[in-house]
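Page 47, continued from p. 46.
Same chain as before, 135 aa.
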Amino acid sequence: MSEFRLSEIKLFVLDMAGTTVSGTFEVHDSLIKAFKENGYEINRTIAGKSIAVPKPLGISIILKEIFQLESKQLTSDIHDAFLIHINNYYLSSPEVCEMEGSSDLFRFLRQKGISIFLDTGFSRNTASIIIERLK
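Result:
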């Protein structure tokens, strides 16, 4: 394997929740609350099936695999409830903060002329709330 040079890196891609932003289990817990509000009990293991994918897709996967259901309306209802919970968390929880070292890493990458891209399974609105909150 060849050695890479920092000067060859043009773009650095990082996830948000649990990688650059605290609150690893808040995504799981917001999904659990959203499912419960719609009459379905899940746990963190099941909620984990929706991590790293767009949340409507993750919700649909859970409904199909766990409850043998396919319903666009139910998926939408659960997603709407999830957005309320997760957005409220990122807007107001005192626990929301960057993961230790994230700002230092961002500064270092920028000094080296490397672009930073944040990736997430969240909606654009949720991502914007986080970015605005943490500056």
